[in-house]
Structures are given as structure tokens and as C-alpha cells.
Amino acid sequence: KLFFTDYGNAAKVERCDMDGMNRTWIVDSKIEQPTALALDLINKYVYWLDIYLESVEVVDYQGRRRQTITKGRQIRHLCGLAVFENYLYTINSDNFSILRINRYNGTDVQALARLDNAKEIRVYQKRTQAAGRSHACEGDAHGVPGGCSHLCLLSSSYKARTCRCRTGFILGSDGRSCK
């Protein structure tokens, strides 16, 4: 799945399949300006920053079990969001410090380091990486991803795929080749 925020006409947190199909709103109320998103891949939770409402909140992948992690003026200055173990990590855009926040109760906020300039944060650690398994967009015998001549996008599961074409091409009747 692909998770994303939108604060255009109606602010929301959404998810869809990797090919853009099955678009679903998972948060569409009591939300104004969601600017950063982080996923807990193990427990299937979505965290987001709302800088207008000055809050950090969480829901499960279906948009249920919503909770506010922390709320207050300091949220207005945060950008970027990552989750690892018991903490959320974010950047204070006023002084470019990396902050660590307890993700269960919003307490235990600590400044860990200061950077020259940063707007985003990611945690790279082996335990945060999904286990490798075969998927529908792996190269075929000729090294062509998913048998698609241009683009292979995972669909509703890792076993399903959708072939797409680059701009100026159309998908052939075989659903794989572009003309």
C-alpha cells in the first residue's frame, strides 16, 4: 500500500494500492494540515503531524483506533516524521534539531542533535526493513520486470501487478506491452 496526506480542498490521510487503485480515505475529519506521515509497518499504524491543529496523531491502517499522541504550539515547528521502536523522530524547523518523542504518551521529548539544515528524517535499521520475498514485478526470464515492457506497479497484493506505459505510449491488448 501507498499512504499519503492531502490538505487541498478537504484535508485527509489516504491509502491506495501501489498502482493508484483502491484509493481510500482513512482520516477525513478533525484534520486540517497534515504535513508529515510515518508508518509502523509491524503493528500497522499511521502517524501524522497536523501543523494547523498542532497535533501528532495515530490510526491503524483502516483509520480506526485514532489517538492524539501530543498536542501544543511546539508541533507548529515540526517537519518530517519517522517511527522506530518506542519513539517518533522529527525535525524542529526553527533550529534544525532532531527530536525524539515517546510515541505512546507524547512525553519524554528530547533534542538529540542539531543539523545545519533539514526538512525530513528517516530511520535506516535492519529491523525496519520488510523481509524480502518474491513479488509480481520481479524480472522474468529476460529480466523484464513483471513481463511489462515499460512500468510494473504492484497492485492489490505483492502477487498482483499492473503494467503501465510511459507518456506517449498506450498499453497493448496483452496488458503488458506498450505501443
UniProtKB/TrEMBL annotation:
Residues in LDL-receptor class B repeats: 1-43
GO cellular component, one term: plasma membrane
InterPro entries: 6-blade_b-propeller_TolB-like, Cueball_EGF_LRP_Nidogen, LDLR_classB_rpt
SUPFAM superfamilies: YWTD domain (SSF63825)
Superkingdom of the organism of origin: Eukaryota
GO molecular function, one term: Wnt-protein binding
Protein's recorded name: LRP1B protein
